[in-house]
Write a structure and sequence with these properties.
Blueprint: E1 6-10, H1 15-26, E2 32-36, H2 52-59, E3 65-68, H3 74-84, E4 88-90, H4 93-97, H5 110-123, H6 128-138, H7 145-152, H8 156-162, H9 166-171, H10 185-226, H11 229-235
Parallel strand pairs: 1-2, 2-3, 3-4
Helix pairs in contact: 1-2, 5-6, 7-8
Length: about 240
């Protein structure tokens, strides 16, 4: 194939069974192999077994091997290479919690990173639910009022309130919001306009009813007046 194909696996409890698997996979012609250094049954809270990668790297000297598991800081990248012989690393939770872990100068605080990411998401009209999911993974204070507002948010304006960006949203952000990033936005506007039209129509109907009621009352009063003794004398 002209398109590179890679593969990602977890390790077995048994070392030899793992090596047999990687030999078979390498034989298919893949371009690289990523190894999550945990078994299928292991949870993220359990420390990744980096040492299990050493035998795999030795077994596949001509195939790039990538380490996955417990990469949370920039310095972990070089440490993984030095300790295991891996050519590179793959990370999920570390980057999801704070994308700035890739800065060689050190990470920026999670909240500062989250604020900048919110602005970038709005400027690129990123889908709201996707942005919300990312920010919930990044927010460092899950018991805070801002996290509660973020968790309940349904629109970018509410999200900006949670992130301390209400002024930014009003001055700049709102112009970037469209149907793609907030599905149903135009429908909501349409419903609002329809509601206003119905309200105007109802008001007009109410005014007509009032006018008709006033006319009816005047007619009834006129009829009542016609039955008075004074009215009868005028008639005669």
């Amino acid at each position: 194939m002209s398109i590179p194909v890679t593969c990602k696996i977890r390790v077995f409890d048994d070392v030899e069974q793992t090596l047999e698997l990687v030999r078979r996979i390498a034989g298919t012609g893949i371009s690289a192999l990523t190894v999550h250094c945990r078994t299928r049954a292991m949870r993220p809270s359990e420390k990744a077994m980096w040492h299990r990668l050493n035998d795999i790297v030795k077994e596949l000297p001509d195939l790039p091997v990538v380490l996955n598991g417990d990469i949370f800081e920039y310095k972990d990248v070089q440490r993984a290479r030095d300790d295991t012989g891996a050519i590179s690393v793959m990370t999920a939770r570390g980057a999801a919690a704070n994308p700035s872990i890739f800065r060689s100068a050190g990470p920026v605080s999670p909240m500062d990173t989250a604020v900048e990411l919110t602005k970038l998401a709005i400027q690129t009209s990123n889908v709201f639910l996707n942005t919300k999911y990312i920010l919930l993974q990044m927010h460092p204070e899950t018991k805070s009022k801002s996290f509660e507002i973020l968790n309940k948010s349904r629109r970018y304006n509410e999200m900006c309130e949670a992130m301390g960006l209400s002024e930014y949203y009003e001055s700049e952000g709102a112009q970037f919001i469209n149907e793609r990033c907030e599905p149903g936005k135009n429908k909501q506007k349409s419903a609002g306009a329809q509601s206003n039209t119905q309200a105007d129509s109802s008001a007009d109907s109410a005014a007509d009813t009032t006018a008709l009621s006033e006319k009816t009352t005047m007619s009834e009063q006129a009829c009542a007046a016609a039955d008075t003794p004074a009215a009868k004398r005028i008639k005669t």
